[in-house]
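During the no-cost extension, the postdoctoral fellow (Dr. R.K.) reprocessed legacy sequence entries with the updated structure-token encoder. One reprocessed record is reproduced below for audit purposes.
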Amino acid sequence: MEHRFQNGHCAAPAHGRSGDNRGVLPLEETPSVADGVEHLLEPSWVELQRIVGWIVCGVLGPILFIAVIVAMIVGSLSADVKVLLAVAWLAVMALLVWLAQWWPPIEYRYFKYRLDALGIYIRRGVVWRTVVSVPRSRVQHMDVAQGPVERRFGLATLSIYTAGTEFARVDLPGLSYARAVRIRDYLLPGREHGDDNDGT
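Re-encoded structure tokens follow.
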């Protein structure tokens, strides 16, 4: 089997005709990020939200528990009121656990976005639906941010700042860092439509 070296790298052996690059997408043919198709967030966003939810449970749970115990000891409460406080604490903890573990996948299914030549559209909400449309012409500037937990999952939040609209700032979380950068670069003021094929 013959191996060829090009620019200091070992090239794969040729099959068929010479220079056959079938299966390799040329840089200039990289699909545009503005494909006009609705996309879900990255699936790992669900796990990230679960971690955040469990952190909230771990912080609020002991605080509420201590508050209930102090109220029972210090306050001159009847036995019935003490039972009600204990039941209320258990109910709040059950709600927090449900929100931490089972709410994220539900919210994920209803959180979508679409990018086209005119701008970006974000649709979210399980009970109360919200649709935000950000025309490209109104975009002032954008930030791509990563918190410590987001970095663990390779995710980022794209913040879009607009002018003359109800939503002066629109956040789109749950994107891969590379995709967030591509969307930011596409929506930047002064960019030509479709000029996002940076190979990222």
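DSSP finds five helices and nine strands in the chain. Residues 113-200 form a domain with the PH-domain like fold (CATH 2.30.29). The remaining legacy entries will be reprocessed before the final report is submitted.
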